[in-house]
């Protein structure tokens, strides 16, 4: 749940990191996702044409690489 909390709290601050990781995510996707972890996974799955499990793993990896985890938020 920590990832979901970070996502909701810092959603628009993460925009550059999201676009770097998934360049095909659109502004409409960002607005739709709006900090919702399940929606992010669904959009990643759709854009990358991968399974839900693979999309979840990709999103988990994204959070694992974020420097935001190392700061006190």
Describe this structure in words.
This protein is mostly helical. The protein has a single domain (2-70), classed as Protein Yjbj, Chain: A, CATH 1.10.1470.10. The chain contains five helices and no strands. The chain has helices at residues 2-9, 15-21, 27-33, 37-48, 52-65. Helix 3 (27-33) runs antiparallel to helix 4 (37-48) and helix 4 (37-48) packs across helix 5 (52-65). The protein is globular. The relative contact order is 0.17. The model has no long low-confidence stretch (mean pLDDT 86).
Multimeric organization: single chain
**Helix tally?**
5
The CATH homologous superfamily corresponds to: YjbJ
Q: Quick one: biggest sheet?
A: none
Derived from helix and strand composition plus strand pairing, the structural class reads mainly alpha
Note the run of SSEs as H and E.
Answer: HHHHH
What is the name of the CATH architecture?
A: Orthogonal Bundle
Based on DSSP secondary structure assignment, what is the total number of beta strands?
Answer: 0
Q: Please name the CATH topology.
A: Protein Yjbj, Chain: A
What sort of overall outline do the alpha carbons produce when their principal axes are compared? globular
Low-pLDDT stretches: none
List the helices and strands and how they pair.
Blueprint: H1 2-9, H2 15-21, H3 27-33, H4 37-48, H5 52-65
Could you name the key traits of this structure?
about 70 residues
In short:
This protein has 5 helices and no strands. By secondary structure, the chain is an all-alpha fold.
């Amino acid at each position: 749940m920590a990832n979901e909390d970070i996502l909701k709290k810092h959603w628009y601050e993460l925009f550059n990191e999201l676009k770097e990781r998934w360049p095909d995510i659109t502004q409409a996707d960002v607005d739709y996702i709006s900090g919702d972890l399940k929606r992010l996974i669904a959009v990643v799955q759709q854009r990358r044409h991968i399974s839900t499990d693979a999309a979840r793993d990709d999103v988990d990896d994204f959070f694992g690489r974020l420097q935001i985890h190392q700061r006190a938020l």
